[in-house]
Amino acid sequence: MKLAMIGLGRMGGNMAHRLVQHGHEVVAYDRDLAAVAEAAKNGATGVSSLTELPAQLPSPAIYWIMLPAGEITENVMREVGELARPGDIIVDGGNSFWKHDLARAAWLKERGLILIDVGVSGGVWGLDRGYCMMIGGDDAAVKHIDPILQALAPGLGDIPRTKRPSTESAWQAEMGYVHCGPAGSGHFVKMVHNGIEYGMMQAYAEGFDILKQRGKDDLPDNMRFDLNLSDISEVWRRGSVISSWLLDLIAIALANDQSLSKYSGRVADSGEGRWTIDAAIEEAVPVDVLAAALFARFRSRVEFSYADQLLSAMRHGFGGHVEMPQ
Amino acid sequence: MKLAMIGLGRMGGNMAHRLVQHGHEVVAYDRDLAAVAEAAKNGATGVSSLTELPAQLPSPAIYWIMLPAGEITENVMREVGELARPGDIIVDGGNSFWKHDLARAAWLKERGLILIDVGVSGGVWGLDRGYCMMIGGDDAAVKHIDPILQALAPGLGDIPRTKRPSTESAWQAEMGYVHCGPAGSGHFVKMVHNGIEYGMMQAYAEGFDILKQRGKDDLPDNMRFDLNLSDISEVWRRGSVISSWLLDLIAIALANDQSLSKYSGRVADSGEGRWTIDAAIEEAVPVDVLAAALFARFRSRVEFSYADQLLSAMRHGFGGHVEMPQ
Amino acid sequence: MKLAMIGLGRMGGNMAHRLVQHGHEVVAYDRDLAAVAEAAKNGATGVSSLTELPAQLPSPAIYWIMLPAGEITENVMREVGELARPGDIIVDGGNSFWKHDLARAAWLKERGLILIDVGVSGGVWGLDRGYCMMIGGDDAAVKHIDPILQALAPGLGDIPRTKRPSTESAWQAEMGYVHCGPAGSGHFVKMVHNGIEYGMMQAYAEGFDILKQRGKDDLPDNMRFDLNLSDISEVWRRGSVISSWLLDLIAIALANDQSLSKYSGRVADSGEGRWTIDAAIEEAVPVDVLAAALFARFRSRVEFSYADQLLSAMRHGFGGHVEMPQ
Amino acid sequence: MKLAMIGLGRMGGNMAHRLVQHGHEVVAYDRDLAAVAEAAKNGATGVSSLTELPAQLPSPAIYWIMLPAGEITENVMREVGELARPGDIIVDGGNSFWKHDLARAAWLKERGLILIDVGVSGGVWGLDRGYCMMIGGDDAAVKHIDPILQALAPGLGDIPRTKRPSTESAWQAEMGYVHCGPAGSGHFVKMVHNGIEYGMMQAYAEGFDILKQRGKDDLPDNMRFDLNLSDISEVWRRGSVISSWLLDLIAIALANDQSLSKYSGRVADSGEGRWTIDAAIEEAVPVDVLAAALFARFRSRVEFSYADQLLSAMRHGFGGHVEMPQ
Questions:
Q1: How close is the nearest chain D Cα to the Cα of C245, in Å?
Q2: pLDDT tens track for B191-241
Q3: Cβ neighbours of residue A243 under 8 Å, at least 6 residues apart?
Q4: Taking CA atoms, which of A281, B175, C315, D170 is between 20 and 30 Å from C291?
Q5: pLDDT in tens, C281-294
Q6: Which residues on chain D are in Cβ contact (under 8 Å) with C306?
Q7: Do the beta carbons of residue A174 and residue A161 sit within 8 Å?
Q8: CB A311 within 8 A of CB B297
Q9: Does residue A223 belong to the interface with chain B, where contact is any CB pair within 8 Å?
Q10: How confident is the model at residue D324 (pLDDT cuts 50, 70, 90)?
């Protein structure tokens, strides 16, 4: 199939590359022309402006937008919406807020266009491993782009197969992509995926912190252990209940440097973690772990917090306590 | 009544003072002789060593130990246990771990001595306001020291009275002291008191932090408010659901300096908060708020955490994410 | 002054009553005519439809809407907005979402009308104790309704005064009301107030649960205490660090029945707790305690959760663990 | 090598079996003689009492105790300690509390015996997959039993190898076992492993709950999604950041029955989750996620909580709120 890939950063560039490797024709655009040149080197057809795209594409055209969520995706979506022809399909592969999809789908529908929202997991490893995809949108349109989804998906690989009834959706799921429901549902499921990711990461982080601090000098001698965290992470990868891909990454990081000294620990959060809490509150679902994981990231970016200062002020007020020295 | 007050710091010194004011005779000891002199100035009889105490006291003697929990209380308790006479009463008024009381009571009992554990709330304000006391120990012994407890307790004051059946324990409760049960139960109740205190303090701290950060520059103009936290704390003291003594203290602190600039926000924790979580886990009671309050204090004392560094390492691993600049 | 009070439920009815007691003229409306009759009995002028209001009021008219947040407030606001005259002031005294105020203020402004949002704390006790109020909106308009605010506010009472510089806002704060900033800021501050309230309530709830479960049969004899929670709550009201109005209410509840058997423990949440978390996330402020308090309420209303079922399924999967019997 | 396996339940029985399969000689004992017979069928030498063991074993003898943590392990350890000969090695492979190991190691040492504590992960799958092991104890003794550890460990398998310096401990880690440090350190590391497990499980549980409740009737139509959780779990196993062995188990469970109707959701906890929090508090490490995961299990086992009842009582007290109907 032929499609336009708009946005050739870490994600879009690799996805274009993988699509070409699987025999698809990619018309590649990015406002950074070096990225376009790189995509062309990998077999895509480069163009230097959005307006060149329609002429390059069959009807219905497929525009796959792979840009950071937010203003830039919104703007490019608008531009593409203006130049597309009725019946065309616009894919938002970024990490957009799923409620924005609802509004966008409605706006595009007024112009005869169809929105497909695709939540993509896979990061920098996707070129080789493939991309796990969660898809929302109109049935026929999602069916239409199926060959593209197949090419991007990781496929069966050597992962042990779960015994389950064989349906079309079950087969797609095994390939690594799932059509979740109407517009917005793809990003919704991807959002929850990231929410879980935050929680899992924090679980590991807290656990390794406990191991690390067990070597602290102020513990009694027989209760102090200087643990080899690299070996431990490696062991846990084998046959343990907590083996996972994240643990593989931890093992790689610790193999290099157990002190993690090149990281200061100011941890960003990228939207999905926040929206997950929002969705849970909307549904009245208790999410203590997912929320705590988000809050830990907030806290990691602040040296001193006003909350903590107020605690000190109260302690001074009722007990005359002087603060701990820095 | 006549009793020995051992330990004349912020708490013990004021308690000795208050007892004298209420007509009791206090024999005061502290290893800091300046504190003894101060107590003597306030009407107590000062002594310069523990061994002088027995001769000064009637039988059964009452030894009120008012020292920081831990080794020092343990040591002094041992010393007093050695020099006391059968039938004497030893009061531990510090913030001891309630399980230690169980062992101490057993050890003292072997020597014919009686332990009363008293959890005391009131801080530096107690001299004037009186001390709220939670008491554990043998019935007869607690009854014996009742006049002392009455003198230390805040009394009815002008607090609106709750309509309830009138019993002896109910009357004592209104005076501000309660005999909770056998040895250990006084410190147990005091411990939970402090656990609740941590949770309440953190609730205020988080709320005021939200108010404070609402003035941040990066918020949209119509969603940014520069709030007068001093006025707000003052208003909440009047007729609001969250009025409390802690809020009174917040109002005092904010009246001086809304920025709380003299506090760095490294918040100590003093044992009870930790033991409260331990007790809850022993009982399988979920205590998300009390635990989160404790953990916030732990976090306040660490500039960067290994947990956060590991989050950054994982993010780098799967997404090539570079850390946020400091 | 003369004003219209729209909505005569538990809150609005008492506020109308208090305003009459303080010499103001209240034109009272509710769609429940029995509530109107009750207000008339208390000295207000009753009317049986919104459309009668303008003729009864001087210019600029003051419409105080005291209805549950949500659709009904929105609808009545619209209706009043249609029948009001330019320059009139519309007060929203319900627990509206502060971001809705922003839209409403804009809509009203187009019609020459002014929105004042007032967050009110005080509940059923406000008639006697007065209402603590947090106010957002235009300076001149807020100044105009000042006599009404003074009448509703609790006033100085016998609460110890905080030493602070004397300004107009400081004086108002001591009376029990505060003009926080532009439209929306009143409800914003009230929202955080309720968020704190959730956290404090949960802190007490967890603490008393620990005390209660300490009497459980499965604990070792010397670690089991049958505590008198009524006495303990009463003691904590006197001189303790955690004394508060909420604790007064706890003492009242426990004086009647320590087992709280008439409550099943399905706890509602009314919006502000949720919005507080939303605001904190918007500001990247960690609010572990406030969020945990909200989630505990969610959990209280579900007998079994899908999350828990999935935990059981996983445990069965990796360990062959059979579930605990019910 | 030849060793005694004491305790032939789900874990011990399979471990004996695996050891025989790898060419070791196992003398098997359990107080349930049917389990002994089963082990004999699998190639072990069965005995019907502990006292028969010493005669069957070379010197130094290896006693591997594989029993539930707690009283039974304590008792059997004592018995074995009495009948063992100086220089013998006693392995505790159960989930014992690591601080108990410290006392046991000291007691055994007095008798010339050596304790090795082994934390084992692998559950019912270990017979095939092998057992991931965390080991504490004396260097020479751990070295002595190395062939046994190798046989039990999963081995390299087809797990991608982490690039890291090649040392002896690194090689063992890749085989799936790690000598963590002195006595107690094996169970310490296993305990943290389980703490992390609790956190990860809860992260998945909360995430899937959000997905599930998104189909609730009370959500607006365009914000309601009926999601196929089985397909979603399957997709996430492929190329996603949150793929893990636990997710594999979730996929298996959901393939059978998305409603998980055979689970009521009363979730047990087995000690390690609690001790992990205890260890973290000892080290002053904030563990919001691990603690919340534990508390969720506590909450899952209580229909109504006293804490929730008290919240209702407070709400009734200040707002006249009636409880939500059940």
A1: 9
A2: 999 999 999 999 999 999 999 999 999 999 999 999 999 999 999 999 899
A3: A236, A237, D244, D245
A4: C315
A5: 999 999 999 999 99
A6: 205, 208-209, 212-213, 260, 265
A7: yes
A8: yes
A9: no
A10: low
Beta carbons of C210 and B263 less than 8 angstroms apart:
no
Across the interface, which of A286, A301, A307 has its CB nearest the CB of C295?
A286
What's the rounded Cα separation, in Å, for the pair C322 and A296?
A: 34
Cα–chain-centroid distance for residue D322?
45
Residues composing chain D:
326
Residue type, B92: D
Phi, psi of B274 (to 5 degrees): -70, -45
Residue D167's contacts (CB-CB under 8 Å, 6 or more residues apart) are none
**Tokens standing for A138?**
């109109």
Active-site residue flag, D197: yes
C-alpha to C-alpha distances, A317 to B247, C239, D142, nearest whole angstrom: 11, 14, 55
| Amino acid letter, B112 | G
Residue A239 pLDDT exceeds 90: no
The 10s digit of each residue's pLDDT in A123-145 is 778 888 899 999 999 999 999 99
Please choose, from the candidates C39, C45, C125, C111, the residue with its C-alpha nearest in 3D space to the C-alpha of residue C80: C111
Nearest to C232 by CA among C216, C255, C203: C255
CB contact set of B274 (below 8 Å; sequence gap of 6+) = B294, D281
Where do runs of H (alpha helix) occur along D157-268?
Answer: 168-175, 185-213, 229-236, 245-256
Determine the Cα–Cα distance for residues B60 and B83; give it in Å rounded to an integer: 13
Q: List chain C residues with pLDDT less than 50.
A: 326
User: Which one of C299, C306, C314 has the shortest CB-CB distance to D250?
Assistant: C314
All residues of chain D having their beta carbon less than 8 Å from the beta carbon of residue B202 are none
Burial of residue A313 (number of CB atoms within 10 Å: 0-12, 13-18, 19+): buried
Token pair, residue B26, equals: 């206090």
What would you measure as the largest C-alpha separation in chain B, in angstroms?
Answer: 77
Strand C132-137: give its sheet, edge to edge: C45-47, C25-29, C2-6, C62-65, C89-92, C114-121, C132-137, C177-181
Cα separation, C167 vs A312, whole angstroms: 27
pLDDT at D159: 85
Q: List residues bridging with B63 in a β-sheet.
A: B4, B90
Q: What is the CA radius of gyration of chain A?
A: 24
The strand pairing partners of C66, in sequence order, are none
For residue A80, the Cα-to-chain-centroid distance in whole angstroms is 24
Contacts 24+ apart (CB under 8 A), B297-300: B297/A308, B297/A311, B297/B198, B297/B267, B297/B268, B297/B269, B297/B273, B298/B269, B298/D284, B298/D285, B298/D286, B299/A299, B299/D286, B300/A304, B300/A305, B300/A308, B300/A311, B300/B265, B300/B266, B300/B267
Burial (CB count <10 Å: 0-12, 13-18, 19+), residue A71: exposed
Encode B20-73 in three state secondary structure.
Answer: HHCCCEEEEECCCHHHHHHHHHCCCEEECCHHHHHHHCCCCCEEEECCCCCHHH
Element spanning B250, H or E = helix B245-256
Q: What is the largest CA-CA distance in chain A?
A: 76
For the stretch B126-183, pLDDT in tens is 888 899 999 999 999 999 999 999 999 999 888 889 988 888 888 999 999 999 999 9
Q: Is the pLDDT of residue A158 over 80?
A: yes
In this prediction the pTM is 0.95
